[in-house]
TrEMBL record:
<dbReference type="InterPro" id="IPR001128">
    <property type="entry name" value="Cyt_P450"/>
</dbReference>
<dbReference type="InterPro" id="IPR036396">
    <property type="entry name" value="Cyt_P450_sf"/>
</dbReference>
<dbReference type="GO" id="GO:0006082">
    <property type="term" value="P:organic acid metabolic process"/>
</dbReference>
<dbReference type="Pfam" id="PF00067">
    <property type="entry name" value="p450"/>
</dbReference>
<keyword id="KW-0479">Metal-binding</keyword>
<dbReference type="GO" id="GO:0005737">
    <property type="term" value="C:cytoplasm"/>
</dbReference>
<dbReference type="GO" id="GO:0020037">
    <property type="term" value="F:heme binding"/>
</dbReference>
<dbReference type="GO" id="GO:0006805">
    <property type="term" value="P:xenobiotic metabolic process"/>
</dbReference>
<keyword id="KW-0408">Iron</keyword>
<dbReference type="GO" id="GO:0008395">
    <property type="term" value="F:steroid hydroxylase activity"/>
</dbReference>
<dbReference type="InterPro" id="IPR050182">
    <property type="entry name" value="Cytochrome_P450_fam2"/>
</dbReference>
<protein>
    <recommendedName>
        <fullName>Cytochrome P450 2U1</fullName>
    </recommendedName>
</protein>
<dbReference type="GO" id="GO:0005506">
    <property type="term" value="F:iron ion binding"/>
</dbReference>
<comment type="similarity">
    <text>Belongs to the cytochrome P450 family.</text>
</comment>
<dbReference type="GO" id="GO:0016712">
    <property type="term" value="F:oxidoreductase activity, acting on paired donors, with incorporation or reduction of molecular oxygen, reduced flavin or flavoprotein as one donor, and incorporation of one atom of oxygen"/>
</dbReference>
<dbReference type="InterPro" id="IPR002401">
    <property type="entry name" value="Cyt_P450_E_grp-I"/>
</dbReference>
Length: 224
């Protein structure tokens, strides 16, 4: 079933929340095969995960025996593995834009699940109210949009047909090829943005929480 707040934010595009139709099937098939090409679900992704774990270990060791919150470290690591496939690069944990985007994603999820914003699912027009959590939610979505669209723009400007670097490059090349053959294509930068958003918001939150629960369990039961 369609969830109003999700439908408004995603414009019914992407691969996670889009309606089942021929366009969705094409987008999902391409996304799945391309992500597998870059290692998703394969052993070839393992070196990237191991490489990122080195940064995680360094961050944890900085705290010594002091208590610390592992959430931002794990969130950074998971996001960087996704970045390596989608953007062809990782971000330093101290990168201001990267930290801001992760904070925005976390805040969007928190506000959408634990505030009056939930009422949008009953009265969709509430989404456009210019105050309170409604305004904060919209602004956070706009800021995330600006960050991701800037990444896509940078890829378009530096695109090399002979050497696609990552998911975004492959998507742009596929879009250009379809337009050249058919004159038009359902593959466009607008749809690409929502797919990248799906990868980050759905992938980062679920994987991070799974790892955090695993860390908690191992901390409470170190011998098991």
């Amino acid at each position: 079933p369609s969830v109003p707040i999700v439908a408004i934010v995603t414009e019914k595009k992407g691969v996670v929340f889009a309606p089942y139709n021929p366009v969705w099937k094409k987008q999902r098939k391409f996304s799945h095969s391309t992500l597998r090409h870059f290692g998703l679900g394969k052993h070839s992704l393992e070196p990237k995960i191991i490489e990122e774990f080195k940064y995680v270990k360094d961050e944890i060791l900085k705290h010594g025996e002091e208590q610390f919150n592992p959430f931002p470290i794990i969130g950074n690591a998971v996001s960087n593995v996704i970045c390596s496939m989608a953007f062809g690069r990782r971000f330093d944990y101290d990168d201001a834009e990267f930290k801001n985007m992760l904070n925005l994603i976390s805040r969007v999820l928190e506000v959408s699940l634990n505030s009056q914003v939930l009422l949008v699912n009953i009265c969709p027009w509430l989404y456009y109210l210019p105050f309170g959590p409604f305004r904060e939610f919209r602004q956070s979505v706009l800021d995330i949009t600006a960050f991701l669209k800037n990444i896509i723009r940078q890829h378009r400007e530096s695109l090399d047909v002979q050497y696609p670097r990552d998911f975004i490059d492959m998507y742009l090349l596929h879009s250009d090829e379809e337009k050249k053959i058919n004159g038009e294509s359902s593959f466009n930068e607008d749809y690409l943005f929502f797919i990248i958003g799906d990868l980050f918001i759905a992938g980062t939150d679920t994987t991070s929480n799974t790892l955090l629960w695993s860390l908690l369990y191992m901390s409470l039961h170190p011998v098991t």
